[in-house]
Amino acid sequence: MPEQVTGPPGDGLASFLTRHPGSPRDTVVHGKDGGLTLGELREAARALAVRLGEAERAPVACVVDEGAGAVVAMFATWLAGGVYVPVNARLSDAEVRDHLRAAGPVAVIADAVQAERVPPDLNRLVKEHGRWVPRPGAAPSGVRHSGDAALVMRTSGTTGPSKAVVLGHEGVREGIDTVIARLRGGRSGASASRPPMPNLIPTSLALWAGIWNTLFAFRLGAPVVLLDRFDPVGYAALVKRFGIRSTVLAPAMMTMLAEEPRVTDLAPLRMVRSVTAPLTPAQARRFRERFGVQVLNSYGQTELGGEVAGWTAADLRDFGDAKLGAVGRPHPGVTIRILDEDSRPAPPGETGEIWIRSSFGTDEGRTEGRLVDGFLHTGDLGRLDADGFLWIEGRVSDMVNRGGLKIVPQEVEEVLRRHPGVADACVAGVPDERLGEVPLAWVRPAPGGRPEPEALLAFARESLAGYKVPVAVRFVDDFPRTEIGKVRRGALTAELRQSPHGTDSR
């Protein structure tokens, strides 16, 4: 009988496991290597928590690879009183080392393969033949977080170096309960009426989207189905096998599914909630037309503690296509401001920078000065319409300044995607001696041959002001992306600077 270990008091996230309403015999984690029942998961988490020992408010890192091990490590850390720090095994060796050293963990949890990538001076707990084997390092750093700290996530780093963000037990729980209540028309927590449907997780559990949706499922009392590495055919098979009627997908995943000829239907799927990146109307429309599945958009940032705006089934029924492309309306407890370039409130319907106050997110000390009067400077551009729906227009850092005229790349991309010869498009600013910066388009052609560049630019001129039309088009097989499918604009422009062809149309 293992030693009794308890997690944070009250509604700490460990309670999502310890107070799970299921039977110990219920399978709650399905992975490629098999499943874990609720009883097995509780036992495994408690056993690992005992090996961690006293970790009160101390960081505990886990090198997250495939499988259910990350779920065990996460709950074990909270049962031991620690702060969970996931590190993505898909990073380079240097990045893994840097992230681990920056965390200052009292211990690093890893399997036998990943343990070799951990700096030897850090304490390690290594899974070998089903047992946790300690590999001592030097003395721990002594880092301690606030009493409510639950986990440390790193931002995606698409617009600069990734940053550590500390999230608290109370804020994460409140954010998840708020979303559940909206989806259920006011009721939160686990359902007492019937067993909930499994929650299919298509992203790695090293990412906030994967962790948040796993916790979302446990809060509901639902099983999770882990798909650590997304592939359209495997995803469709899991939808059918587990009878998934609603799930989450990143926009890039919807595009992959819509373009995969081997995936002919997604029955019994009825509804998808978009996560991790803005979903364009073209992407939503194509996915819905291909599979007959409704798409509910949403918006959030790691610093905000997860989703802060989204659609409900009632919104979909009342507004439908009229708001296609909007990310929904703010959740209760969330206030959104749209500010112009002079930091003044923008008129309704006008585009400006999005500032958000949320009770789910971080405090001033954890966001490096990005909080002003309780509002987080998100770095996103958007607008609020008369019905309170939020529309994401792009990133402030992505805007192209063409001789003093500002261009939002996402607006140009959406026009290009309407051309029948375009599967996808990306627009970014490139240096220009006369104007300082001009827009350039990278285009992935639709099957059947690529359009003529001049014809494509003429098509764009029909809908855009002249200064917004790209100066040239470059055709690509695909775009460099992050793990969750966000296009890395910086990688495209860096590659262009190294290209002997410059900004010509190719």
Tell me the distance between the termini. Answer: 68 Å
Integer-rounded radius of gyration: 23 Å
Instruction: Give a count of the beta strands, DSSP E runs of length 2 or more.
Output: 27
Structural class: alpha/beta
Q: What CATH architecture of the largest domain would you give?
A: 3-Layer(aba) Sandwich
Q: Describe the global form.
A: globular
Largest sheet: 5 strands, mixed
* Strand-residue proportion: 25-35%
Folded structure, characterized:
By secondary structure, the protein is α/β, with parallel strands linked by helices. The protein folds into three domains: 15-166, Rossmann fold (3-Layer(aba) Sandwich), CATH 3.40.50.980; 168-329, Rossmann fold (3-Layer(aba) Sandwich), CATH 3.40.50.980; 406-497, 2-Layer Sandwich (GMP Synthetase, Chain A, domain 3), CATH 3.30.300.30. Helix content is 27%, strand content 27%. Strands 4-3-5-6-7 form a five-stranded mixed β-sheet, sandwiched between helices. Strands 18, 19, 20, 21 and 22 form a five-stranded antiparallel β-sheet that branches. The protein has a four-stranded mixed β-sheet with strand order 2-1-11-10. Residues 1-9 have low confidence and may be disordered.
Descriptive key words:
506 residues; disordered N terminus; Rossmann fold; GMP Synthetase, Chain A, domain 3; 14 helices; 3 domains; 27% helix; alpha/beta; five-stranded antiparallel sheet; 27 strands; single chain; five-stranded mixed sheet; globular
SSE inventory with pairings:
Elements: H1 15-18, E1 27-31, E2 34-37, H2 38-52, E3 59-64, H3 69-79, E4 83-88, H4 93-103, E5 107-111, H5 112-115, E6 124-128, E7 131-135, E8 149-154, E9 164-168, H6 169-183, E10 199-201, H7 208-220, E11 224-226, H8 232-242, E12 246-249, H9 251-259, E13 271-274, H10 281-291, E14 294-296, E15 298-301, E16 306-310, H11 313-319, E17 329-330, E18 334-339, E19 352-358, E20 371-372, E21 375-384, E22 390-395, E23 400-402, E24 405-407, H12 409-417, E25 422-432, E26 436-445, H13 453-461, E27 473-475, H14 489-497
